[in-house]
Amino acid sequence: MTEKASTVEKLVSTCQNTDLKRIGEKVLNRQRLSFDEGVFLFEEASLSYAGALANWVREQLHGDKTYFNRNFHIEPTNICVFSCNFCSYSRLYAHREEGWELSSKEMVDIVKKYDGQPVTEVHIVGGVHPKMDLNFFINVIKEIKSHRPGLHVKGFTPVELDYMFRKAKVSTEEGLKRMQAAGLQSLPGGGAEIFHPQVRQQICDDKVDAEGWLHIHKTAHAIGMQTNATMLYGHIEKFWHRIDHMERLRQLQDETGGFNTFIPLKFRNGDNAMSNVPESSVVEDMRMYAIARLYLDNFPHLKAYWPMLGRQNAQLALSFGVNDIDGTIDDTTKIYSMAGSEEQKPTMSTKELVNLIKQVKREPVERDTLYNVIKNYNLVNTEEQEIDAHLN
Ligand code: V47
Ligand code: SF4
């Protein structure tokens, strides 16, 4: 028995709350938690108890390995036909003079800025612009891939895809296959928010619903695309809505195995129609990560997205179940800075990411989008790290 295992076993065996003790024993036996047990953890578990269990699971799955990648975003537009109340970023089409819309040339020019740099992924996501249709994006993807075939294109949420496919009058499968043929390789996790209609109707009434979101991801998995999943937490939802959300994801993952990473997204209340809703505390954020790690037993990875959470809290999350910290970003996303995140110009060099991970005694591993290892920074010498750091 390792020292860490014996510590967590002692914590569970001496737990005075019999229900929490039983849940702890189930975790240590790698048994699945029920819906009610998930809710109970949110209601009753201290951060130290849930956190220690989640950290144990994380170390069983990944040891100290902590993944990051070298990536940048393209946000084609912030003009959007939808009006989610939590969104600080979008502008309605009627007010489009206040927003931005990139041409396909401008998007390819962003990609060209990274010529000669070892970035491996472009993440494309934005508002739903009525004139940026399926053919427009197929063309953008083709141009990006023809300029840089090795760059992984991860892009488009079911919100964007559902709108594009309906407008083009194609089925989800047909639409996704066309995008895949153009070079789209995986889907990010956005647009999920909270699946339950009680909450969804209050925060994002007019966009794709839970069934539509899950259908698009299921179809992507069926044609061989891996995807991520998010959950926007810490606003008006109750704990059981969070478990309901994760339950639906867990069920789909049982069916397809196509999800890579779960990313809880902390609601930020800057300058949006929900600014009166207070933000969650850091303790609640860490409990969220820990309980996600415990509940989603079939998701390989749990990510703390540092531009949203702030780099210090993302670093802290590495002790509460998280094993991925996203990437370099290079100040290419505005979604969170416009919502009031402390990261007003989100950019981290590889060196900074490596240091952030090493400071909490974890093992920095650069990955590609699909978690193939590019470099383990515990295994390379300092000189090599210095060379790398200058590249990005
Ligand atoms: O769906 C919008 C969220 C998401 C706010 O897959 C907000 O690797 C908090 O999904 N407060 C888009 N969150 C971003 C996204 C994402 C980000 C990073 C990595 C990946 C991945 C996916 O941003 C939206 C919405 O849930 N969001 N406004 C806000 N005020
Ligand atoms: Fe549009 Fe997305 Fe903002 Fe909703 S979250 S208003 S779909 S950009």
CATH class of the largest domain: Alpha Beta
Number of domains: 2
Main sheet attributes: strand count, strand direction, barrel closure: 4 strands, mixed
Major β-sheet strand ordering: 11-1-12-13
Assign an overall shape: globular
**CATH homologous superfamily annotation of the largest domain:** Aldolase class I
Bound molecules: ligand V47, iron/sulfur cluster
Characterise the protein shown here.
It is a single chain. With 392 residues, the chain is an alpha/beta fold. It has 2 domains: 3-62, no CATH class; 66-391, Aldolase class I (TIM Barrel, Alpha-Beta Barrel), CATH 3.20.20.70. It is built from 16 helices and 13 strands. The strands form 4 sheets. It has a 4-stranded mixed β-sheet, with helices on one face. Strand 12 (363-367) and strand 13 form a beta hairpin. Helix 3 (35-44) crosses helix 11 (239-256). The protein is globular. The mean pLDDT is 94. The site of iron/sulfur cluster has 12 residues, from loops.
